[in-house]
Design brief:
By secondary structure, the protein is α+β, with helices and mostly antiparallel strands. The protein has one domain (49-58, 70-223): Oxidoreductase, molybdopterin-binding domain (Sulfite Oxidase, Chain A, domain 2), CATH 3.90.420. It is 18% helix and 30% strand. The chain is globular, with a radius of gyration of 17 Å. The structure holds the ligand Nc1nc2c(c(=O)[nH]1)N[C@H]1C(S)=C(S)[C@@H](COP(=O)(O)O)O[C@H]1N2 and molybdenum atom (MO).
Length: 228
């Protein structure tokens, strides 16, 4: 049988999921360990994923356009397989429950910025607010700069996936995706769209901007799961 990199990746991801479950239930894990160094993070994976350099600054990476969106023109659309599709204005978005969280940011170009203080809305809260239909299995995210990215619904619904508008106590700057960007601490940072404009719930997966250009669809930092 020929080697199928996709099935290998899926098998690796399942092992990592089992490992995290075992950690949460404080059971003994007998499979291969997630890679990396340092003490465990709150999900039980090493704080430093493999091949990452810890930086103190916060580099800026994007496809070259940094849209400027005044708050009065900003909106976030929730569309597709939800009971109540909705376009949130800034005031409506800010009226959703706001949470503070601290999490790590891992860029595929091999830098990580640890312990970032965020404020924003949980992806799962806005999704549940609109009523996810049972057929929804994936999300496709569109940004104001024509960037896009895609995630399995299960990943997007994790407790630490946020739509953030503050970093370290100040409004998120335009260069980092303000007014609002998504963060996906358990996946490489390209899965978190800056200048997020639309979240579409779908029953089929579609590759986003970087996923179409050779980045891994699954993007697991602890499996060194970077490029296809
Ligand atoms: N809208 C949009 N979101 C984006 C990108 C982009 O080009 N446009 N680049 C992605 C990539 S590849 C990375 S590494 C991170 C970088 O975020 P930062 O510039 O705040 O460090 O944003 C991600 N989200
Ligand atoms: Mo990136």
């Amino acid at each position: 049988m020929s080697y199928d990199p996709d099935s290998k990746r899926i098998a690796d991801r399942e092992k990592l999921a089992q490992y995290r479950k075992a950690i949460q239930q404080k059971q003994k894990w007998k499979g291969p360990l997630p890679q990396g160094e340092g003490p465990p993070n709150r999900d039980g994976s090493p704080k430093h994923p493999p091949g990452q350099k810890i930086v103190e600054n916060w580099p800026v990476l994007d496809i070259g356009i940094q849209p400027e969106i005044p708050l009065e023109n900003w909106s976030l659309t929730i569309s597709g397989l939800v009971k109540n599709p909705k376009m949130f204005s800034w005031d409506e978005f800010m009226a959703l429950p706001q949470v503070d969280d601290v999490s790590d940011f891992h860029c595929v170009t091999s830098w990580s910025r640890l312990d970032n203080k965020w404020r924003g809305v949980k992806f799962s809260d806005i999704a549940n607010h609109c009523g996810i239909l049972p057929e929804a299995k994936f999300v496709y995210i569109k940004a104001y700069d024509a960037y896009s990215t895609n995630l399995p619904l299960e990943e997007a619904m994790k407790y630490d996936v946020l739509l953030v508008h503050q970093w370290e106590g100040s409004p998120l700057t335009r260069e980092h995706g303000g007014p609002v960007r998504m963060i996906t601490p358990q996946l490489y940072a390209w899965k978190g769209a800056k200048w997020i404009g639309e979240i579409e719930f779908r029953n089929k997966d579609e590759l986003g901007y970087w996923e179409q250009r050779g980045y891994s669809n699954t993007a697991e930092p602890w499996l060194n799961d970077r490029y296809c």
